[in-house]
Each structure stands twice: as structure tokens, then as C-alpha cells.
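Data availability (excerpt). All sequences and predicted C-alpha cell strings are deposited with the supplementary files. A representative entry, RNA polymerase factor sigma-54, is shown inline so that the format can be inspected without opening the archive.
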Amino acid sequence: MRAELRQEQRLQLSLTKELVQAIELLQYSAMDLEAFLYERSLENPFLEIRRSRVRQRAHRAERDQKQWLENIGARQETLVGHLLSQLPSLKLADRDERIVRCLIASLDEDGYLRVPLIELAAQFSASEREMERGLRLVQSLDPPGVGARDLAECLRLQLERLPERDELAERIVRYHFVPFAEKSWKTLAKQLGVGLGELQRVFELIRSLEPRPGIHYSSDKPPLVVPDVIVARGADGDWMVVYNDDIYPELGWNRGYEQRIAASGDRQAEQFIKEKYRQFAWLAKSLEQRKQTLLQLMAVIVERQRPCLEFGLSALKPMTMREVAEELGVHESTVSRAVRHKYAQTPFGTIELRRFFSSAATADATDEAASSTQVKAIIQELIAAEDPQAPLSDQQLADLLHERHGIAISRRTVAKYREQLRIPSSAKRKQYTNL
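C-alpha cell line:
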């Protein structure tokens, strides 16, 4: 066996730095793209980034509170701030106040205390009894239910602060919450010696309570979703797609700085300018390619989803990324990247592009296939119109889908869609009345 050198030619695909950059640009959202361009401007002294029109309006809105962008981004009171503002009225001793502040800081965004008291006691060098007393103080604050350690305790705290106490509801939540929530009501009614109508009354009362006391308080600004493309009817009544240039920054080449550098006559400086201009040109080309890809993609979506644009998402047709990719002559991954974190403004609202894609549900041969989104919308309508005292079972829903809409799907598929819609089973939807 001996070592030797051989020379051979072979063809293989390789990802250049420019190609990788083009792929990255396609999947970036508007905010990510702006951050990426500003990073490139730090590396290229000739590259100028002009702020998008939306950013300019948002900047002006900071000086004018009447601007709608500023109003949307108004900061709400935080849950921690709301709770701390109530402490002076309790007139606590220093140590008790520190314990209460520690507990408030340990609450999650829903207002629950998920950390075991024994762990907090060890961190604070306090006894578990002191932490229990501090927790009761937190639970006495507004909003009712804050500081609970689980859902049952949260509901019980709210029931105890009602103007008119309900002994049966408090008893159920304290001792029989799991069978009550699972609607094992016939057995529970016998144990408690009450009628099903009484359990239904308690159910309606508990449903009026807030399971997440901290949900109305936030430390974040509400997100502002701006569409990447706009779909609207043209003057001829047909649908048209417009690229929303307002949300994207503009690229520019600093000719003045280029001329000053070139005037030095330095050959290395000239080579530097050529290299930076090549990067600028490729970046501009990639951005234009990104724009055209989005427009072409949206044109296919509009063509395939005309009923959806007319009547809303309930009329969404089955459409996969593979089908669109084949029509565009690109890889499926390109379509996946193109729709990532992108939004379209439609007649029925601003929605994510991914929502236009939906798998097909089985249908009769005489009818067109229905999308899973459309089937879910029909299931919601059927359940909304059902008799609450005799709710539709999954099999009955499957039968109605077949009889009224020609959609033949199994009971298990109906159950899967119902669970995805977070709709409980018929047994848990059933309502009772006093007999």
C-alpha cells in the first residue's frame, strides 16, 4: 500500500455566501430584515439605510399622542405595580412587607404562585408559617384570585369575595372540583343531595369567574402587526396584490463618500470600493428577488383562494405548500421560508400567510374536497346552533357534515378537529335545568 496524489474533476452543488444571504432574506420578517440591513450598514460604510415610512410615522408619534400608532402601543399597568400600589393600605411591619413583596415578585403573568412556599421560605430565610401568612395577605389584594396556587384555589378565593356567598359553589370547588369539572354530575348530585339543575347553576356561576386574574395586566406593549402584502379589489373588480413598501427600509449608495475615497488615488481604496459596491448590488438584488417571490406566491394564493377572499376563512380551500411550490417552479422549502412571519391585509383582516394553507378533509366524489379549516368552521357552527340540553355527539356531527355538506369524515376526525378548537365533548357541553 502506497500513498499517491491524484487529480480529478467532479460536479457538486455548493452554497455560496451570497446564496445563503438570499435564503436568509426570504425568511426574515420585516423587523428582522431591518435589523439585518442595519448590521450590514455597519460593515459597509457606503451603504445607507433609510428608515421605513411606518418607522418614521411611529417616531413622529412619540411626539404626538394623537397618532394612532402611539395609542396602539400605549403601556398598560403591570400586575406587580398594581399589587404593590395596594401595600400602603395594609400598614405592614417591615419584615411582613418584605415577605409580601417577595411573594408578589414570584407570581407568574397569570397571577398564580407556581413556586412552592417551602422554596421561597428557604430563599428568604423565613419560616413556612410566615410565608403562609404573607400569601394570605397577597390573596386579599385586588384582583380577586391573585396569589392562588392552582385553579381550584383561584376560583375559591373569588367565590369567597362575592357580595352574596354561595355555600354550595364553595363546597364543590373546595372538595369536589375534579369530578365537577369533568361533569360527572349524576354521581356528584347523589353525593351532595342536590339536583342537576343546581349543579348547572353553580357551573354558570363558576364560568363567570376569571381563571387568570393577571391576564388584564401586562408589562409588554401590544404587538403591532403590519402586513407585508395587501390584497384588494382593483378598479376592474378583480383581485390585485400590492407589496407594502412602506414597512421596509430603503437601500442607498453614498456617492459623496465614494468620490472622496476615490479621489485619493489609492489602488487599495479603489479595490475596497469595488468590493463594497458588489456587496451592495447583491444585497439590492436579493431584496428585489425577495419582493418578487412574495408577489408571485401571493398571486398564486389569491388565484386558488378566491372564495376565501370573498367569504372569509370559512371558505378556505385545501392547498398545500408543495402544490404552490410546483406551480411556482421552486422547492417547497422556499415557499415555507417565504410565508414565515409574513402577513397579508385582506378584506376580512390581517392574517398570517400560513393560514391560507390547509390540508384536505375527505369528501364525496361528487363534491370538491373541503379544507380542514372549512370543516372546523362548519363544526363550530353546528355546535353553536345545537340544543344545549341535548348536545351533538361526534358521530352526529360527522353525520350532519355528510348529509348537509357532502363531507365524509370519520368520528375520530371530528373529535380531533373539535379538540383542536378546544371545544369539550358533548357530555361536558350538556346543560341541565331544574325539574
